[in-house]
From TrEMBL:
It holds the Pfam family DUF3791. It comes from Dorea amylophila. This is DUF3791 domain-containing protein. InterPro entries: DUF3791 (IPR024269). The lineage of its organism: Bacteria, Bacillati, Bacillota, Clostridia, Lachnospirales.
Length: 74
């Protein structure tokens, strides 16, 4: 499997996980991730993220969003 495919799978898993953890519809998560460039962030940090569990990566994404002034309340 190519790295690009692995990144896409990670992005998809994290969209689903965020939807479940934050109690928001998948469509809203996709919009938020695109608006805040979370998908690009995942791709950029994949080298580190692929060694961590999805929960730890989602925590990092939450901090990334907070750094952009976006608060997520689950």
């Amino acid at each position: 499997m190519s790295e690009k495919t692995e990144i896409t799978f990670m992005q998809t898993r994290l969209i689903r996980l965020a939807s479940e953890e934050w109690n928001l519809p998948v469509e809203q998560i996709i919009h938020l991730f695109k608006e805040a460039d979370v998908l690009g962030y995942i791709e950029k940090c994949y080298g580190i993220f692929h060694c961590e569990g999805d929960e730890a990566v989602l925590e990092d994404i939450t901090e990334f969003l907070q750094g952009k002034g976006i608060e997520i309340s689950a």
